[in-house]
Amino acid sequence: MPGIKPTSKRILNPQSLQQWLAQLDDHVNSLAWSSDGKWLAAASISGPITIFAGKTGQVLHVLDGHAFGTCKVAWNASSTTLASVGQDGQARLWDPESGQERLRLPGGAAWVEHLAWSPDGDLLATTAGRKLRLWNGADGQLIQDYPDHSSTISDVSWQPDTQVLTSTAYGSIMFWQPDRNEPLRNLEWKGSVLVMAWSPNGSYIATGDQDATVHFWITKTGTDLQMYGYPTKVRELSWDGTSRYLATGGGPTVTIWDCSGKGLEGSRPIELKGHATFLSALAFKHHGRVIASASTNGTLMFWQIDKPKQPLLQASLGSGISQLVWSPDDHLVAVGTEAGVVTVYSAPEVR
Fold this sequence. Notes:
Elements: H1 14-17, E1 18-23, E2 28-33, E3 39-44, E4 49-53, E5 59-63, E6 70-75, E7 82-86, E8 90-94, E9 101-106, E10 112-117, E11 123-128, E12 131-136, E13 142-145, E14 155-158, E15 165-169, E16 172-176, E17 185-188, E18 193-198, E19 204-209, E20 214-218, E21 224-227, E22 237-239, E23 245-248, E24 254-258, E25 270-272, E26 279-284, E27 290-295, E28 299-304, E29 313-316, E30 321-326, E31 332-337, E32 341-346
């Protein structure tokens, strides 16, 4: 007999959660929230950097950025300085209140691609080709010009809550200290690293690799293992705030590894299936088990990983998504696209 079956399922309207939208002149190459969530910096691949009011989208400043293109932007811990690097051979430090450039720092090669502030926000690391340099973020003094790497540096990051800097190049992850010009440690592996991600507790390092694998190290012991079978090279990595879950891209499926218990070896990952094309960005909330995923056809999805069969929310932005960043308080997520769209969504309600 026909009847009506009640359901608790809610269909969320993506537009109801969209807070604001802006249009830049080109592909969004980097997005960064200030530590207090007050500002959102967006760099376009052609060079200009726009500073928005994070909650409203009001344009506060449009900075010149870098000739030939800006690669990345990042805020120091106190949000008093925005750093940027680009294809003019420079790192630049900006005052977000006035929009004025404070300092220019020579990266050592024509293309300065990566940068990373120390956890306390006092030191800035930059990479250009094989060169890794360390700067005083207040006055621009060069603290270290480390020995050239054996190949182009593919990523740089600080070990959480330490003054230890890590850099990746072909075949290794190297550990550095501000007061030493030689490596403190070297984790070797014969492969080409594309991206590196520290777990928030500093216990693990993961790398996404050119050969369609993810490499994984236990920091304390140096023990390593490899996850393979991805359809394409892996550029997307994200840890949850507890350091238990590692999300990986490398195809259309979000693959999430559980690092608790007996560890990764022999374990079966959680798989989030819904994207029709390859992933282009992943980002866990800082707290909780919600992750946002984005793909090359412009689809944005939010997932609750303990309910993996369907997303909490799905939206289409019309062009490939290049950037995906949660605000520090996890209330908002900023998205950038290849067509120059910058938009901010409220976090969907967890079921």
